[in-house]
Structures are given as structure tokens and as C-alpha cells.
Design a protein that fits this description.
four-stranded antiparallel β-sheet; disordered N terminus; alpha+beta; Nuclear Transport Factor 2, Chain: A; 109 residues; disordered C terminus; 26% helix
Amino acid sequence: MQDNFGKDKNEVYSQKIRAGKRSYFFDVKMTKGSDYYITITECKKKNTLEGVSFEKHKIFLYKEDVVKFSEALQAAISRLKEELPDFNFERSSTEYQVYEENEKDLNWD
């Protein structure tokens, strides 16, 4: 899934995941020196008196840390699955999309 959020010259790949009031962006970018890195951005929509604003948090993941990061993430996911055996972690993206569309009816305030 491609998205133009934060699109710039050095962006090689981008994927957006919507999760309620939050969106997550996984971007592969290239430096001027042709080196690659990943950014993971959480963007949360907030309603303020002035209107809508977005709170962003970003992680930069450099190539030398990718394997360690991936292993730690997989270990954390495995532990989460052990702790929550009744939760269906295998939902399809269409099931999630339906949930996302229906959550507009929920009161989040």
C-alpha cells in the first residue's frame, strides 16, 4: 500500500496502517550517500479547540540494527501471543477494515 504522507525525494518505499485514531507509517528511505534506513512513524489524530492536529512519534532504524530490532519485535509478539491466547492475531485486513469503519460510531472522547 503506497501513501503520499511525508513523501519526499529520498523515500524508497512507504506503507500505511490505519488503527482507529492512529496511523502507522513504515518508510524505507535513502540518504544522500545512498545508504538506507527505516522510519516508523505513529501519527495520532487529536481534536483541539483550534481544530484537528496530529501528534507524531518517529523511530529511525538503521541497517546495522535491523536484525536485532526484528528479533526483539518477534520475541515481544511471541510473548504477547502467549499472554493472550484467546485473542485472534490472525485477523485478515478486511476484517480490520470493517472494524475501523464501524468504530466511527464509537464515542472516543
